[in-house]
């Protein structure tokens, strides 16, 4: 079996800068980490591979050259291969353009049975990239996976958790799943793996390597949605002290909530 895991480098804190012209996050390689949900995607791949030496795991990401840090982390955890897709013309991509770019990379890689993504990213929170990759590739996909029940030769049985019910399905390969954080407990990078993979050269792919080389399909040019405005939340520590009887306090609280449009 050949597994592809999609991972992403995200801000490590809420203290981030925003480009005032494009409205996108400034990613300078500092104060970043692997997207937490992607750790569960990686661990799911390692769980499936356990005891199956013929299974290979290929981790991919899109971003600047500094994004190789999360690929190295994936290699040190247990991935066999890693590829970074990077090009200045990919900058400013929205969810659709990002999904299309990653689908083109997977098409470039060609050989895969199962694609595993984290449920969502902590910087975008759309939970759309995984399903959109599958749609571009024309393969079935299942979101919000909370349990791997059985891995078969030609299919996988999984349980997904939705708001009001769980659903168990069997899906044929090739397919894509997105996993939630309840699926497993991620491992730490291995020092032994670090020594073993330290000389590994991460694969680099750019626009010129893809089947579709039309720059209008990528980055800001290929993004049908544009950010109107983005800004960090204003932190306020204002406090209001209310006085009066229980009835008066209830009326004051009601008025405050109503004025703030919470009710």
Structure description:
The protein has six helices and eleven strands. The chain is of the alpha/beta class and 263 residues long. The protein has one domain: HUPs (Rossmann fold, 3-Layer(aba) Sandwich), CATH 3.40.50.620. It has a nine-stranded mixed β-sheet, with helices on both faces. A two-stranded antiparallel ribbon has the order 2-3. The longest helix has 15 residues, at 95-109.
What is the makeup of the main sheet? Answer: 9 strands, mixed
Q: What is the CATH superfamily label? A: HUPs
Q: How many helical elements? A: 6
Q: Provide the structure class.
A: alpha/beta
User: Could you say how many structural domains there are in total?
Assistant: 1
Helices and strands, in order, run as EEEHEHEHEHEEEEHEH
CATH class: Alpha Beta
Straight-line distance between termini:
53 Å
Low-confidence stretches: none
- % residues in beta strands: 15-25%
What gross morphology would you assign? Answer: globular
Give the beta-strand count: 11
Bin the helical content.
Answer: 25-40%
| Strand order in the largest sheet | 9-8-7-10-6-1-4-5-11
Mean pLDDT: 90
Label the CATH architecture.
3-Layer(aba) Sandwich
